[in-house]
Amino acid sequence: PDLIRFQNLSKVYGSGNTEVKALWQVSMAIAPGEYCSIMGPSGSGKSTAMNMIGCLDRPSSGEYFFDGQDVGQLGEADLALIRNRKIGFVFQQFHLLPQLTALDNVSLPMVYAGISSAVRNERAAEALTQVGLGQRLHNRPNQLSGGQQQRVAIARAIVNQPLLILADEPTGALDTQTTKDVMAIFEQLNAEGITVVMVTHEPEVAQLTHRVIWFRDGQVLNDHMSPEDMRQT
Length: 233
Ligand code: ADP
Ligand code: ADP
Prior knowledge:
By secondary structure, this protein is α/β, with parallel strands linked by helices. The chain has helices at residues 46-53, 76-86, 102-112, 117-130, 146-158, 176-191, 203-206, 227-231, and strands at 4-13, 20-30, 35-39, 61-66, 69-70, 87-90, 164-168, 195-199, 211-216, 219-222. The two termini are 33 Å apart. The structure holds adenosine-5'-diphosphate (2 copies). Residues 13-14, 20, 22, 40, 42-48 line the site of one adenosine-5'-diphosphate (ADP). Keywords: ATP-binding, Nucleotide-binding, Transport. Pfam families: ABC_tran (PF00005).
């Protein structure tokens, strides 16, 4: 069974003259345990695909199955539950709350999941230790480097033990060395069994994942793209 399955999926914005086929009749699947990146030029449908995968949006036509559930048939409350329990989101700009410590930032998704504060603190500390920040629990974001802040964000993404980490340009704000550190964390989490899907513009980053899906004009132009193909684009 696939974790992610697009079946003849289209996402169309607007209508008539202003109609945009952001995704057009896309069929693809990602199995549990995969480590993928999504690439493609600006306007090719990457953000739309990420919004779809992350259950932030529903298809215009065709089907999206996440963990066996037909997302197009679910209401907002069910989509919100999937996003909170089954998906961990990581962003380019970290999106940490500046007034909260690392521990409290990582605890937040568990507040929404209704977990007691003692258990929250314990699990948040564990998640931060998992990303190498066991000594930084009580630091605020402005007391941490960019790479450390992204690791806090990754800890927040994994704290509810999701099936999927969905990362949008996770290394876009990081330097070369920090990018390697953050990619090593994704590699480690994937080795522990979490499915990881990221959008990136950086071929050096995409090459560290195990499968590169290349979008163009709202369609998958190349799945399992090789490093040679990437150098030619
Ligand atoms: P990418 O992330 O690869 O840059 P997007 O998924 O953002 O591509 O966009 C794909 C196409 O859909 C583009 O032509 C974009 O302008 C259009 N598009 C994306 N979101 C919207 C929207 N909310 N309303 C109208 N058009 C949109
Ligand atoms: P990204 O850099 O992630 O591709 P964009 O800057 O393309 O993001 O888009 C930012 C937001 O605006 C996204 O949520 C996208 O869905 C939306 N958007 C993109 N193109 C359009 C458009 N032509 N009309 C309306 N909204 C759009």
